[in-house]
Amino acid sequence: MGLIVQKFGGTSVGSVERILNVAECVKQETERGNNVVVVVSAMGKSTDQLVKLAKEISPQPDKREMDMLLTTGEQVTIALLSMALNQKGLQAVSFTGWQAGIVTEPVHGNARITKIDTVAIESQISVGKVVIVAGFQGITENGEITTLGRGGSDTTAVALAAALKADKCDIYTDVTGVFTTDPRFIKKARKLLSVSYDEMLELANLGAGVLHPRAVEFAKNYNVRLEVRSSMEKIEGTVIEGEATMEQNLVVRGVAFEEEITKVTVLGLANSLTSLSTIFTTLAGNHINVDIIIQSTTEAETANLSFSIKTEDLMETLRVLEDNKESLNYEQLDAENKLAKVSIVGSGMISNPGVAARMFEVLAANNIQVKMVSTSEIKVSAVVEEKNMLKAVEVLHEAFGLSHSA
Amino acid sequence: MGLIVQKFGGTSVGSVERILNVAECVKQETERGNNVVVVVSAMGKSTDQLVKLAKEISPQPDKREMDMLLTTGEQVTIALLSMALNQKGLQAVSFTGWQAGIVTEPVHGNARITKIDTVAIESQISVGKVVIVAGFQGITENGEITTLGRGGSDTTAVALAAALKADKCDIYTDVTGVFTTDPRFIKKARKLLSVSYDEMLELANLGAGVLHPRAVEFAKNYNVRLEVRSSMEKIEGTVIEGEATMEQNLVVRGVAFEEEITKVTVLGLANSLTSLSTIFTTLAGNHINVDIIIQSTTEAETANLSFSIKTEDLMETLRVLEDNKESLNYEQLDAENKLAKVSIVGSGMISNPGVAARMFEVLAANNIQVKMVSTSEIKVSAVVEEKNMLKAVEVLHEAFGLSHSA
Which of A347, A358, B200, B321 places its Cα 20 to 30 Å from the Cα of B139? Predict the structure, then answer.
């Protein structure tokens, strides 16, 4: 008799019909003889509706009150799912984040879990109940309601699986698993039967939006065995664990991509040595995430600096840089948008130095210009023009042997 | 500097615009130099929507899960109102029932408050914050979320006013106060400037749905000064306190009425002595509220018994009586519906024995037949045909000197 943590996202619980479907899914797991803890998100678009209400009241709602507001979303789902399970003859009990003992740091909107007091959940499991926990939320030591930010429900599920020493954490979603690339755009995309935590981290970070990187990180740190699978189709998903146990022979495991990238260039930086850190400290202080950074080292007295950001952050980035023009001491700003990032990911790359070279070769052969490059031990990213993105993904997917044999 | 508890019901917080209006109302109270604790209900029809969702999942949803579901409604309102106050430059903080320290008995759907731990609220008041509390909800000693049942938010407000020793508890609603009768039906209805707790209790119990009787009872027990007033119009409301301080000369203070009453008659009761208690114990055990009871005492061996119920309970009442026909030992059941109850209320009646007689005289003079009668120290009720109800209210309102001079 094992213990399984199941997580169902907003789409999977988006209607009464779907909640009943989830209840069936939970029931089947109990019929396999397992104890089940279920983590759910808010129903479909309900969080968006709450955010809209808040924005009508205040353009910048207080973060504490925003947490108070948004946590009602999951509370609705846990109650409804518990009713659905009761209706199917199962004994179920729902817990809000605080009832489940999920303690976070005292930060609103993006809190990290500091500990989980599993006593309440364990006592319900011990009497044979299915425990349903509201994802995305916790409580501070002082009794303030907090939320975990993006990917919060995934994180709740993985953290609970770790704290409860569950045998497995199943992440149910609207896709059937993790693919070699996005199957909505690339027909030859193939489902992976297993990936390693590190590969998943890179794939998640790169916009393969199946599972939040924070949750993967958590799973990696506590060695929680994850499976990403479909809540609609009863088929095998993708297992994420320490080492990808299958298909080890493949160097590249997936091709990720992300649109709406802008490259910002700061021209004529007077003192490149100090201004580099000053620029990024300033941007970070304004919550702008910078991705790839390239500094041109020249013999001249001034240097140029380029970095990539999400296009949605462009206005704010320009404002921050212009507001600080004097202290940063540069001549001019330049921005190029309509760019995209294409990345190849795979643990096998560590021991295969030729992979990046092969990537550029393939792109060049297809007349795709590379604007920026970044590499890590298990990933190579290239910024290309947005119009070339899907073509780049397709040819790389093919060249690294990821496509269906079909 | 005083402490005022304000309560706003579902209609008063039914939209973003109305929540902003409530915020303005709270702000004005703080500008008078008072500390304010605000109790709010769920927005407009949101509770109904949640109930509908639950019913789609289960015809008889688990009560614990129903509480879990419904308490999200007020949590949404407290967060939005707090945002609205922050937006207006006030320091505000919202509390769910459990955060506000509202402890209830371990009953779901209709829990009574057992104690209020005011530490959290008081510490926020002491730093000058407006505290917004979710009405209708509490928590058991074991950390289970409960609801207070009908009139719950009124009860929360009054209980908080008592626990915090507030100077006053203002119940904001969609009417401007307590009237001599329902102004929607009787044009000559007049607003009362003050009524006693006992009068309000009778008026509330009799369907003048401004304030829940439970809250009035609570206010009476803890001597909380209440005022019922409009959240839309800035005019004086009706004060409810120990003694009605104004208009003492009037014997009758108001005329209340209630539609959809059914009279049930049990014919041929064999053993009227024991069966009287058996019948009402059986009905109470099935949650059927019986109002007026009349037993005909005859010389015969069998007796007849009549009682009034809400028409909506008729089917259930007949079922219960028929299921227990053998033990109750009666011959036949009869039911007359399309009845209504009209009541005159006033503390002055205690010392005016002629009031009931005057009432019947007035009704008789208008050809209105009285089907059943019930009296208490401050109330006389008469059951009449529904078609005669408004006529009865009108002539009684006039006869007891309650009408506008207009």
Answer: B200
Interface test with B, best of A38, A65, A98, A124 (most B CBs within 10 A): A65
- Is pLDDT of A120 > 90? yes
A51 lies in a domain?
yes
Give the nearest chain A residue to B47 (CA atoms). Answer: A76
Structural domain count of chain B: 2
CATH assignment of the domain containing A153: 3.40.1160.10
CA distance B84 to B77: 10
> Collapsing DSSP states into helix, strand and coil, what is residue B406?
coil
Residue B211 is assigned to a structural domain of this protein: no
For chain A positions 267-306, those within 8 Å of chain B (CB to CB) are: none
Chain-centroid distance, C-alpha A192:
18
B293: pLDDT confidence band, cut at 50, 70 and 90? confident
B375–A contact, CB cutoff 8 A: no
> Which domain does B278 fall in, by range?
255-399
User: Among residues B118, B149, B174, which one ends one of the domains?
Assistant: B174
pLDDT band for position B300 (cuts 50, 70, 90):
low
CA angle, corner A66, sides to A64 and A69, nearest 5?
115
Evaluate if residue B378 carries a pLDDT over 80.
Answer: yes
**Closest-CA residue of chain A to B94:** A65
Select the residue of B54, B83, B96 nearest A54 (Cβ to Cβ): B83
| Integer Rg of chain A from CA | 23
Q: Is residue A310 part of a domain?
A: yes
Query: Do the domain assignments include residue B119?
Result: yes
Q: Answer yes or no: do A50 and B76 touch at CB < 8 A.
A: yes
| Contact assessment for residue B213 and residue B311, using Cβ atoms and an 8 Å cutoff | no
Which pLDDT value is given to residue A301? 72
Q: Are A95 and A133 in contact (CB under 8 A)?
A: yes
Q: Which residue of B has its CA nearest to A70?
A: B76
From A174, A199, A222, give the residue that closes a domain: A174
Task: Kindly state whether residues A20 and A160 are assigned to the same domain.
Answer: yes
Q: Does the interface ipTM go beyond 0.85?
A: no
